[in-house]
């Protein structure tokens, strides 16, 4: 068996450079390994999730919507529009979305915003249908600006 230093300094044809750390490792059966992908890296997507609670319950006529944006600027613009449209008349809770990290914990990488709008029938200034209509207009605008929706 070869030692660590001889593996790292090896220059024979069976030496493969592992992507990411630059170290060289001798691999005898490299046809069993994944081929490294050196294609263009995909741009990260930015997400906005909108959930509406009517009288503290989710409603079938207003399911949660999940939008995907191509840039942080578009996400921020959409979040600001949503807040401006409903902040005065409804309770809005806003938070980031946590995703699993490599160590088994949770991390918020800032690429996702979660909005929950609380519609209370007894205290609402506008009717449910009007509210849904205003929310749909915003969603349609985001789709129209070629910000794809999942």
How many individual domains? 2
Mean pLDDT value: 75
Q: How many H/I helices? A: 3
Q: Percentage of helical residues? A: 10-25%
Number of E-state strands: 9
Portion in strands: 25-35%
Summarize the biggest pleated sheet. 5 strands, mixed
End-to-end distance:
52 Å
Low-confidence runs of at least 5 consecutive residues: none
From the alpha carbons, calculate the radius of gyration and give it in angstroms: 24 Å
Shape, per Cα inertia axes: elongated
What is the helix/strand order? HEEEEEHEEEEH
The class by helix and strand makeup works out as alpha+beta
How is this structure best described in words?
There is one protein chain. With 150 residues, the protein is an alpha+beta fold. The chain has two domains: 1-41, no CATH class; 46-144, no CATH class. Helices cover 25% and strands 27% of the residues. It contains three helices and nine strands. The strands form three sheets. Strands 3, 4, 5, 6 and 9 form a five-stranded mixed β-sheet that branches. A hairpin with a 5-residue loop joins strand 7 (99-100) and strand 8. The model has no long low-confidence stretch (mean pLDDT 75).
Please outline the helices and strands:
Layout: H1 4-8, E1 15-17, E2 24-26, E3 46-54, E4 57-58, E5 65-69, H2 72-86, E6 91-96, E7 99-100, E8 106-107, E9 112-119, H3 128-144
Parallel strand pairs: 3-9
Antiparallel strand pairs: 1-2, 3-4, 3-5, 6-9, 7-8
Could you provide a short overview of the structure?
Residues 1-21 are annotated as: Disordered. The chain is α+β, with helices and mostly antiparallel strands and 150 residues long.
């Amino acid at each position: 068996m070869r030692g660590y230093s001889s593996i790292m300094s090896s220059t024979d044809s069976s030496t493969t450079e592992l992507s990411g750390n630059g170290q060289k490792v001798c691999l005898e059966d490299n046809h069993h390994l994944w081929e490294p992908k050196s294609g263009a890296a995909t741009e990260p997507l930015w997400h906005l999730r909108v959930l509406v609670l009517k009288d503290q319950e989710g409603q079938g006529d207003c399911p949660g919507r999940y939008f995907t944006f191509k840039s942080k600027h578009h996400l921020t613009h959409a979040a600001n529009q949503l807040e401006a449209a409903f902040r005065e008349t409804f309770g809005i809770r806003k938070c980031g979305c946590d995703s699993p990290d490599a160590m088994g914990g949770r991390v918020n990488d800032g690429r996702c915003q979660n909005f929950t709008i609380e519609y209370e029938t007894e205290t609402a200034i506008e009717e449910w249908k009007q509210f849904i209509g205003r929310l749909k207009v915003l969603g349609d605008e985001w789709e129209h600006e070629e910000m794809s929706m999942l």
